[in-house]
Amino acid sequence: MDGIEMQLHAVAHSRAGDKGNRCNLSLIPYDPRLYPLLAEQVTEARVLDLFRHRGATRVTRHDLPLLHAFNFVVDDVLEGGVNGSLNLDGHGKSQSFRLLALTVVVPRDLAP
């Protein structure tokens, strides 16, 4: 595919939430036409590799095609969670920025 490599934040936005030692990350493309491309490139394995250094053990991706969105559930990533971690971000709110730093290749005609 002839395209441009760019960070996800150029083509999508994300929000984060937490429950215990688990982080939920939404991923929503600004342009719904990018949904299939993100489904192909932002895999569970890539997201797990991105968070492995924080102790993540599993990532589950939930596809929401009618919303053109994804929800990633990252297990064991919050160093015990808000009550058990000395981490400054025990809630995991900033982890959406880490996800948005992933790179994807976007076709030139869909690049911002």
Say how many strands there are.
7
Terminal-residue CA separation: 17 Å
Structural class: alpha+beta
Low-confidence stretches: 83-91
State which percent range the strand residues make up: 25-35%
Compute the gyration radius: what is it?
A: 14 Å
Arithmetic mean of pLDDT: 88
Give a quick account of the main beta sheet: strands, pairing sense, barrel closure: 5 strands, antiparallel
Sequence of secondary-structure elements: EEEEHHEEHE
Helix content: 10-25%
Global geometry: globular
Number of helices: 3
Characterization of the model:
By secondary structure, the chain is an alpha+beta fold. The chain has three helices and seven strands; from the N terminus they run E-E-E-E-H-H-E-E-H-E. It has helices at about 35-40, 45-50, 95-100, and strands spanning about 5, 10-15, 15-20, 20-30, 60-65, 70-75, 105. Strands 2, 3, 4, 5 and 6 form a five-stranded antiparallel sheet that branches. Strands 1-7 form a two-stranded antiparallel ribbon. A hairpin with a 4-residue loop joins strand 5 and strand 6 (about 70-75). The two termini are about 15 Å apart. About 25% of the residues are buried. This is AtuA-like ferredoxin-fold domain-containing protein.
